[in-house]
Amino acid sequence: MRAKQKKNSAAFRIAVIGGVFGFFMAVIAVRAVYIQAFCNEILSEKAANQYKKLMISRGKRGTIFDRNYKEMAITVDVASIAAYPGQMEGMPQIAKALAKELQINRKELSQKLSSGKTFVWVKRQTTPKETTNIKDLQFSGIDFISEDGRFYPSKTLAAQVLGFSGIDGHGLEGVEFFYDRYLQGEKGEFKIVRDALGRGLNDRKSPEVENGGKNLILTLDSNIQYIAERTLQEAVDSYLGESGTAIVMVPKTGAVLAMAHYPFVNPNAFRSYNRETWRNRAVADSFEPGSTMKIFTAAAAIESGECTPSSVFFAENGEYRIGKHVIHDVHPHGWLTLAEIVKYSSNIGAAKVSQMIGPETLHKTLSGFGFGEKTQIDCPGEVMGNVPPFQRWAKIDSAVIAFGQGISVSAIQLISAVSAIANDGILMKPYMVQGITDKNGRILVGFAPKKVRRAISKETASTLKTIMAAVIEKGGTGAGAALDGYSVSGKTGTAQKADKKGGYAKGRYLSSFVGFAPVENTEIAVLVIIDEPKKAYYGGTVAGPAFKKIAQETLSYLNIPPAGNPDQITVQLKHEATG
Amino acid sequence: MIFIWMAIMSVFIMELFFYTWCRVQSVKVGYDISLATARQKELLKLQKNLTIELAHLKSPQRLTEMAQSRFHLVVPSPEQIVKIP
Predict the structure, then answer these.
(1) Is residue A197 part of a domain?
(2) Cα gap B41→B26, rounded to integer Å
(3) Distance (Å, rounded) from C-alpha A74 to C-alpha A342?
(4) Alpha carbons A468 and A464: distance in angstroms, whole number
(5) Domain containing A285: what range?
(6) Cα–Cα distance measured from residue A289 to residue A291, given in angstroms and rounded to the nearest whole number
(7) Is the dihedral of CA A334, A340, A346, A349 positive or negative?
(8) Exposure on the CB side of residue A17, measured as CA atoms within 13 A
(9) Domains in chain A: how many in total?
């Protein structure tokens, strides 16, 4: 009986314990089912957030190539130095050392570090040497963050044309700015998976690579650009000029082979240069062209049918009064033909030609050549220049515009107009970019040469070529620009610069030479402008030799055979040539 | 009966091992992909640096200086250009 009672009591206790355990198991089971079935999404996300991170990044900026696919601007990984002030030990000492190594203001850095922010940039886009030096110091709370940096391998070459981009990857000047929307990479999201030890897991290609920007293929040739820049530097330095501009263009297409500016700018460190030097002055500045305008006065006269190259004008022996104004020639001349007016650069002759054809005809021709309107070249900040409406021209205006005063043009307008003469009278749109490619080099957009209009007839263009060729001959103002082995047509220009009072400044000139070669089958047109030369100021003396050097070396580089030797160009050792 | 149960249990255990092996392999391949991607990034960086180096070596300024000073090359004058029929 006792044993039976004992057995019942044990069974009861087991049942109670079983019930309690069963109850708790049921609670756990219900909770498990609830978590698995109803909370799975929220909890999965919570867990994933601990090892997955969503990043938004912009693709790398596209590359800029010259016409031979030589890199002129590329994007590279650079380190930026950041600080977490809360984690720094010995902040004043660290700030002192950082300021010294990175050459930044110590006081400003200390203020930034003490501002109470959890994260501050110390210096963006540092040089590899700076990064290594700071890493070696092993400071706490200092981080190195990889960023995209723009690098220009050719340094100062074509800097004003290429422009540059800022720290945040936006183009700020030049082609970088004009084609920013193509060059910029697209924004994209990507996930980073990291394990507990911080190791990457399943890292795929990031959008930096996948969503990279488009590449640009320029019409510039870095070799011709170098020839132009080096020659320009020599010319400006030897005549103690303030600055200079040179352009090399293909007249048949309007493609710009070189656009040089001096003083140079290194876009890798553009902030250390004067802002004035950043600008692409060939496009963004206008100037009074001076005697180079006589070409277009002659064009207007011939095109109107009122003159031939042999029409004669009396040049008043060097002094000609129009109202209260007196026009002078550098050398007094008597009777001159139209061709001689251009050859000897007679202001009085040009004024008389203008008086004969009338302001409307001259204005129409100048407008036909594109003066007073933008060329629409693919560079930012282009100016229109200024050609006042002919209805407003006084008698003196009509006379002085004929020799390049009272109007303003840009360098790109001037060379485009002269190229139109070389191109049998057809004005082409100048252009700097010939194509846009994707990251694999496939052409997405191609820019073909674009005809603007016929400026003058083929016959007039042919006559002008002959007239301009005479400028380079013996006795002409541009004799110093004659090329060895190639025929040249050109025109000198010497313009007095305007002063602040609205008159002309004494001793401040703009010397220029514009021409093309070979005359028969023109391959290149070249413009050289030297601003405020001190040693001499005539265009033929200052800019003519620079034109000669650029044209000679460019034709040689382009394998254009000299007259009579059409088959081969060779280079040989100096000692062989001289010996 | 015991054999049937043992067979069923063995199948389940084998499946469990196979599933675990697959997961381990998946994670391992994930790490390998990450390492390969990192290596690719390094190589791309190296390629960019080499591109810069090449651009510097081929710069017209450097080549002109070398041509003139080391090899005494000059731009030929038209008389020095030989026409080959």
Answers:
(1) no
(2) 22
(3) 47
(4) 6
(5) 222-557
(6) 7
(7) positive
(8) 6
(9) 1
Query: pTM score, two decimals?
Result: 0.82
Mutate to test the interface with B, among A439, A559, A572 (most CBs of B within 10 A): A572
Question: Is residue A210 situated within a structural domain?
Answer: no
A-chain CB neighbours of B27 within 8 Å are 201
B45 contact residues in A (CB cutoff 8 A) = 76-77
Structure tokens at A339: 């061709």
At A496-528, the pLDDT tens digits run: 888 777 778 788 899 999 999 999 999 999 999
Structure tokens at A273: 């240069």
* Residue A42 within any structural domain of the chain: no
Closest CA to A526 of A538, A517, A535: A517
Is A102 contained in some domain? no
Of A209, A565, A573, the CB nearest to B73: A573
Query: What pLDDT sits at residue A85?
Result: 85
Write out residues in chain A with pLDDT < 70, as ranges: 1-2, 53, 55, 190, 197-210, 564-579
**In this complex, do B30 and A567 lie within 8 Å of one another by their Cβ atoms?**
no
Question: Residue B56: which of A153, A209, A571 has the nearest Cβ?
Answer: A153
A70: nearest CA partner in chain B: B55
- Give the DSSP letter of residue A481: G
User: What span, in angstroms and rounded, lies between the C-alpha atoms of A139 and A133?
Assistant: 11
List chain A residues with CB under 8 Å of B73.
Answer: 571-574
Mark yes or no for CB contact A70/B48 under 8 Å: no
What is d(CA A363, CA B73) in angstroms, rounded to the nearest whole number? 49
pLDDT-derived band at B84 (thresholds 50, 70, 90) equals low
Q: Is A575 exposed, middle or buried (0-12, 13-18, 19+ CB in 10 A)?
A: exposed
Distance CA A302, CA A281 (A): 32
**Mutation test of the interface with chain B: which of A51, A64, A154, choosing the one with the most B Cβ atoms within 10 A?**
A154
Write out the catalytic residue numbers of A. Answer: 291
- Does the beta carbon of B33 lie under 8 angstroms from any beta carbon of chain A? yes
Instruction: Tell me the per-residue pLDDT of A373-403, one tens digit each, with 9 for 90 and over.
Output: 999 999 999 999 999 999 999 889 999 999 9
* B8 touches A: beta carbon within 8 Å: no
Shortest Cα distance, chain B CAs vs residue A128, angstroms:
12
Residues in chain A: 579
DSSP state of A445: E
* CATH number (domain holding residue A440): 3.40.710.10
